[in-house]
Q: What sequence folds into this?
């Protein structure tokens, strides 16, 4: 199978936050897929990206050549090693242009300002994965276990960085010799390139379902992901923005756990789910600091000292199929009423009850 095409996207923005801008992204792509010996599937593709923002066309240096297009490649293979055993591997490149917001936004939310960054560059990257999927059967219970190791690497990764800036986005260095001092209007965030970042890890999943009797069945899902997201060769100014002394990328979890189980009896079901995020070790240190009477999130440092073990969140559900076209259920989110935040300042909902009726017609 051979697939090819051309895509084009034009964006025009008229906004008080960004002023007026327009961009055009054009890409040509081709992909080849073939199956060999009824066991091996191969996929390979290439994509060429062109990007223009206002009157500026992004140029790419490929060796000694400077071109207005950027090629990216991908490759993947899947091999059936046994009746229920599959091996796979993949490699792919990626390219992301900064959005109009990342370049030109200028706004304020409470005491925090967002500054423009017209010189921010596109980010590039690649990712690779090796995995194995093994099916299994235990009487009438069927399922599979999937294990995969992955690595992603980024150059000029785009991230919002907190600091002091002039209104046009130029840095406002804090003087230690009695020079001009920043005010609240100079404090905020700006999108920047952070050199290089690498994320490695492993992902494990086990999924299955089966009948325990004529009227009783069970289905389950469980997953665990370990990640090690690191800033590579980062400069001292970027590392100084971390709340922790490690080089772990900000706002990342090392450990993620998910589990879901459901019991079905005739036309009724009962289900439970759980998820766990480990403690977010690194955030922007400015969120934990106070400058005189100015603080973005007062008390956050003390809160993080107390809530430093991550979070377990549990949900539950029960329901029945009343008729062929009517189902009713009760869902309880955050059943143990855990207080937790997905990111600084974003407190998630407390225990929530929902009654659902579904009609199919």
A:
């Amino acid at each position: 199978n051979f697939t090819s095409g051309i895509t084009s996207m034009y964006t025009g923005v008229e906004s008080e936050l960004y002023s007026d801008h327009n961009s055009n992204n054009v890409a040509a792509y081709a992909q080849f897929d073939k199956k060999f010996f009824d066991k091996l599937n191969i996929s390979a593709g290439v994509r060429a990206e062109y990007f223009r923002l206002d009157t500026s066309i992004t140029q790419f240096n490929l060796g000694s050549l400077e071109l207005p297009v950027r090629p990216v490649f991908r490759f993947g293979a899947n091999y059936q090693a046994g009746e229920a055993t599959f091996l796979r591997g993949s490699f792919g490149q990626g390219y992301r242009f900064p959005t109009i917001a990342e370049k030109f936004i200028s706004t304020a939310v409470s005491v925090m300002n967002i500054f423009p960054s017209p010189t921010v560059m596109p980010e590039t990257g690649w990712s690779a994965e090796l995995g194995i999927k093994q099916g299994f059967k235990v009487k009438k219970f069927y399922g599979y276990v999937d294990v995969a190791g992955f690595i992603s690497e980024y150059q000029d990764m785009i991230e919002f960085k907190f600091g002091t800036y002039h209104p046009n986005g130029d840095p406002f260095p804090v003087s230690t010799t009695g020079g001009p001092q920043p005010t609240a209007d100079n404090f905020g965030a700006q999108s920047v390139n952070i050199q290089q970042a690498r994320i490695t890890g492993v992902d494990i999943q086990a999924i299955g379902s089966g009948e325990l009797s004529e009227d009783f069945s069970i289905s389950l899902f469980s997953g665990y992901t370990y990640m090690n997201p690191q800033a590579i060769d980062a400069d001292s100014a970027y590392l100084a923005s971390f709340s922790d002394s490690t080089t772990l990328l900000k706002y990342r979890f090392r450990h993620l756990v998910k589990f879901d189980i459901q019991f079905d009896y005739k036309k009724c079901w009962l289900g439970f789910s759980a998820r766990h995020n480990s403690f977010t070790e690194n955030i922007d240190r400015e969120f934990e600091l106070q400058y005189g009477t100015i603080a973005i999130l007062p008390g956050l440092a003390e809160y993080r000292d107390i809530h430093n073990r991550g979070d377990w969140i549990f949900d539950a559900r029960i329901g029945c199929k009343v008729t062929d076209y009517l189902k009713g259920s009760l869902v309880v989110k955050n059943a143990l009423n855990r207080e937790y935040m997905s990111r600084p300042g974003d407190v998630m909902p407390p225990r929530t009850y929902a009654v659902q009726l579904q009609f199919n017609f």
Observations:
- The mean pLDDT is 89.
- Residues 300-306 form the longest helix (7 residues).
